[in-house]
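Subject: sequence -> structure tokens, single chain

Hey, anyone have a minute? Need the predicted structure for the following. Not urgent.
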Amino acid sequence: MKKMQQLFMVLLIPFFALSITACAEKYTEGKQYTEVNETVSAKAEVREYFSFYCPHCLRFEPFMEKVKNNLPEGVKFERNHVDFLRAASPTIQAMLTKSVVVAEQLGMDDKLVGALFNYIQIQRAVITTEKDIRNIFVLNGADGEKFDKLMKSFSVNSMAKAMKKNQDTMSKKRALTGVPTIIVNGKYRVNSSELDKNNFEQDYQDLITYLLTLK
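Reply:
Had a minute. Here:
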């Protein structure tokens, strides 16, 4: 069985090489994607810069779930909440950034991110304190005490600061001027407006797959 698997992988190599070559001919730097950094990230990743206050980000959520589920093995999907929208104060938005990290640490990120989007954009409710976020989490099955501890923890605060640093770095490079923005391996930004409108989702995923092969 092991020899059969090895043979199968060897037979696939020419196919993958052909696919990468075809993508290289199809996608052009400066058109479908833009190089926004000198080096790639240490680990393979697809990073979505988004905001709970962004209507387009909400509409993009189901598709982002498909992107996440179709990533090659070993590639991590990272949500990076931003704090520069005018719909709420930077303090509240920074609090929401921390809540994304907490949701991930609780292993409930998809459910709780969806709940926050629903609360802010569907219910049109206003978040004014950390208690509001806590209530949303608890109503959606999270442990309130764990939430309290995580929001104060060093690891959560460090990861939230790292998100902010990523945001500021990409903003200074003019790579991040709005949301949602997708950046692959910290170096390549997807230019969604240049993708095939008749086959948008597949074209988007093909481009991400291709960008993950670049250095």
